[in-house]
Amino acid sequence: MGTDLNAPLGQNRKTRASKAEKSSLTFGRLSLGLAALALIGISAWAVLKPTGLIIPPETQTVADAAQPNEKRVAEPNTTPLKQQKTSGALSGAHVEETLTDNGSIVTKFSPKQRDGDGPAFIEVGRTKGQDPRLATFPNEDLLEDSPEGRLPITGPDGLRPMDQYARPWSGARGIRIAIVVGGLGLSQTGTQNALRQLSPDVTMAFAATGNSLQRWMQEARRTGHEILLQIPFEPFDYPDNNPGPHTLRVGLDAKKNLSELHTSLAQITNYTGIMNFLGGRFLSDADALEPVMRDIGRRGLLFLDDATSAQTLTGTLAGTIGVPHGFADMVVDDQIDRTAILKKLDELERIARRNGGAIGVASAFDESVAAISQWMDEASTRGIEFVGVSALVKDPQQQ
Question: How many helices (H) and strands (E) does the chain have?
Fold first, then answer.
């Protein structure tokens, strides 16, 4: 019965496996099963372990500290494990990890006080100008008390009134023009008209002998104007041509002239510098002028010369002492006629295009204000940037 005669027709007879073959097959299956169980166990352990396959530094330190032959008995976890660390990518923050009873990790981030190892902060330098919301208020660090009143002064950190109260501008290379309108405060209606019509880009110069100066100053600053203070200086035909009270004169000694200067400086605050009101004789006398220029420079103010006197020494002395200073390129309203003023303004533009910048001065006459307002609207479309006068003076600190 064990022969091929008993096999069904067309089918091969099955052969029996030997004992050796059966043993090999059973061992292979067992090995595969054990490997699968091991893989599942390792995967489960890696998932459930709170720090993965890497032993936390704290745990590793404690383990290494144990004696080699000491038996370690696992104690029940009765309190959550807390680990604090600072991440390099999160410099300046506390990172707190908490292992809960169910094996989950809760990570908590909280800020901390930065130290020398934290990010570096780059100081880009002090910017010019004042927050518009505070433009009507003086910086108290830039004032000092004197017998004549509160006077401008360079701050303890080197900040100058010239910088604090300057009108910001783009800083771009291009054609720049500064228009200065003076005589404000002498006429109430004229002052109000100028403040109402003129662009905030116009620098306003208030006469120290004017009225209601504090009120007008605040309005000018509120609307964005940079301002100057006009100081009366002795002209050649004094006293026939008298600039007014507190005029600085050649015949006075330096102490008296400085007292007169300080009386004028104390009338208002928030100005970047001073501009002469007349003064042909005084500005041409080096002995009288030098103490005044030194005082102006010490206070962090600029000096603008209206260039009406050919004998002025302000540029020479200011350059020697290191005082920020500038000269007007043109008086645009030496003729009180609208058409003539517009022609002068066109000439001022030609000077600016040739030199890169120009300063024009005028008085707050109705005709001047109307012509300047009209011309600035048109000139702004020709690529001209109108700036405060502080942007065009020669500043020793910027050279």
Answer: 11, 14
